[in-house]
Amino acid sequence: METGTLISLAVYFLAMLGIGLYAYRTSTSDVSGYMLGGRKLGPGVTALSAGASDMSGWMLMGLPGAFFVAGFSEVWIAIGLLAGAYLNYLIVAPRLRTYTHVAKDSITLPDYFENRFNDTSRALRLVSAVVIIVFFTLYTAAGVYAGGTLFQNAFGLNYEVGLFLTAGVVVAYTLFGGFLAVSITDFVQGCIMFIALVLVPITAYMILGGSGPVMAEIQAMEQPMLDPWHGATFLGVISLLAWGLGYFGQPHIIVRFMAIRSIKDFKVARRIGMTWMTVALIGAMLTGIMGSVYMVTQTGSLGPAAYLDDAGQLADPETIFIVLSQILFNPLIGGFLLAAILAAIMSTISSQLLVTSSSLTKDFYLAFFRRNASDKEQVMVGRISVFIVALAAIGLSLNPSQNLLSQVGNAWAGFGAAFGPLIVFSLYWKRMTYAGALSGMVVGAGTVLFWIYAPITIAGDTLGSYVYEIVPGVIFSALAIYIVSKLTQPPAASIQHDFEKMERRLETDME
């Protein structure tokens, strides 16, 4: 490993640990501070924390790789994500911040579901907590695996060493610093990602000679790189756009909305978050396009042989950002750019670890075992839970299976269908019942699982190859909520009164 790269990584790791130490001394004395930052996040931290925990390594590897291969025919997923994130700020954010506060200061989503519907059976809490714990443990395992793979491929270290380095630093600042540490590190990591996704495509563009030579090479390619409709079908475009539907149900993203200090800050947060996301997505797309041109024109400097196949071409399109960062920059800046990938991976791992540990603490330990546990005890259990979930994730990632990775790839759809319609209905519809809520969650998750695993094919192709599973999942979940709520007795007067109280509080907060 180059000295400059090593210095960049060391500075990055020390910065993350320093933030964890600061947060440990600032906001971990009570359970609300440890798990939700005391609901005191500013708009900038809220916005970049939500964005960084959302995108993960996909932003710097998956999306550039897709555009490297297919060009702008992949633009629909970016449009869907932008639309979904924007609507999430408008539709979910203000109401969820107010409603979770009024509903007995709910700290987790299962906490909110139980309090919103006055569920004495605790079925809503239990089912939603199980969904969060299972899927996020798999998600975390995939993140740890990605970190180990990055160290192995980019830094030349042993996979297990990289795995433990990634997990160790994340666990350290998450375990001690809690939500505030996760949010501030996400903010810093989001800034690093932003700079990297601006710097790499612009530098490649300049080295390639500017718009004239770049456009000439693009037009000469067999693949129509600038045609968004190339190879597209109606259902294919719908499936890509539908990725945006997942935002309404992602616990690690919307928990940031619960933690902002005031709903008046959402306007600024939305502007910051959407600007960051738009520029970052454009940068990721252009990285893939510029990388594709570079690989055609710069045949004498295609980068490290480890990334090339026998024909001298890029073996894995998802490594194009790594290759460009090593070709175009000196080791010190190249190390910073590789740290951007690590930042993207770690920001998501830390968010998922904290959401999972919060659910284990509040929705299992406190709800079913120690209802009178003190704040100090809950914080301790939360830290132990972070460590346990991290160990489980490390265990899964030591011997990763294709089944594990494919399940994690479908978790976005699972969360979006199970929680998305439930959250939106619960924030807007007073007539919604407990039975409708439970039905919507079960039907949404069940539909996604059926769509993925059912032994049903059409002309030899699986259901998922025709339309992304989140589409039927969200539709059937919403229908289940509406139909079952209409067929069951209206909520008790006290529940409707609580809803009206939340509405009045929202109006007050908005003034």
TrEMBL record:
<feature type="transmembrane region" description="Helical">
    <location>
        <begin position="320"/>
        <end position="345"/>
    </location>
</feature>
<dbReference type="InterPro" id="IPR011851">
    <property type="entry name" value="Na/Pro_symporter"/>
</dbReference>
<feature type="transmembrane region" description="Helical">
    <location>
        <begin position="436"/>
        <end position="454"/>
    </location>
</feature>
<feature type="transmembrane region" description="Helical">
    <location>
        <begin position="75"/>
        <end position="92"/>
    </location>
</feature>
<feature type="transmembrane region" description="Helical">
    <location>
        <begin position="268"/>
        <end position="294"/>
    </location>
</feature>
<feature type="transmembrane region" description="Helical">
    <location>
        <begin position="466"/>
        <end position="484"/>
    </location>
</feature>
<keyword id="KW-0029">Amino-acid transport</keyword>
<keyword id="KW-0472">Membrane</keyword>
<feature type="transmembrane region" description="Helical">
    <location>
        <begin position="191"/>
        <end position="208"/>
    </location>
</feature>
<dbReference type="InterPro" id="IPR050277">
    <property type="entry name" value="Sodium:Solute_Symporter"/>
</dbReference>
<feature type="transmembrane region" description="Helical">
    <location>
        <begin position="228"/>
        <end position="248"/>
    </location>
</feature>
<dbReference type="Pfam" id="PF00474">
    <property type="entry name" value="SSF"/>
</dbReference>
<dbReference type="InterPro" id="IPR038377">
    <property type="entry name" value="Na/Glc_symporter_sf"/>
</dbReference>
<comment type="similarity">
    <text>Belongs to the sodium:solute symporter (SSF) (TC 2.A.21) family.</text>
</comment>
<keyword id="KW-1133">Transmembrane helix</keyword>
<keyword id="KW-0406">Ion transport</keyword>
<keyword id="KW-0997">Cell inner membrane</keyword>
<keyword id="KW-0915">Sodium</keyword>
<keyword id="KW-0813">Transport</keyword>
<comment type="function">
    <text>Catalyzes the sodium-dependent uptake of extracellular L-proline.</text>
</comment>
<feature type="transmembrane region" description="Helical">
    <location>
        <begin position="162"/>
        <end position="184"/>
    </location>
</feature>
<keyword id="KW-0739">Sodium transport</keyword>
<feature type="transmembrane region" description="Helical">
    <location>
        <begin position="380"/>
        <end position="399"/>
    </location>
</feature>
<keyword id="KW-1003">Cell membrane</keyword>
<keyword id="KW-0812">Transmembrane</keyword>
<dbReference type="InterPro" id="IPR001734">
    <property type="entry name" value="Na/solute_symporter"/>
</dbReference>
<feature type="transmembrane region" description="Helical">
    <location>
        <begin position="6"/>
        <end position="24"/>
    </location>
</feature>
<keyword id="KW-0769">Symport</keyword>
<feature type="transmembrane region" description="Helical">
    <location>
        <begin position="123"/>
        <end position="142"/>
    </location>
</feature>
<protein>
    <recommendedName>
        <fullName>Sodium/proline symporter</fullName>
    </recommendedName>
</protein>
<feature type="transmembrane region" description="Helical">
    <location>
        <begin position="411"/>
        <end position="429"/>
    </location>
</feature>
<dbReference type="InterPro" id="IPR018212">
    <property type="entry name" value="Na/solute_symporter_CS"/>
</dbReference>
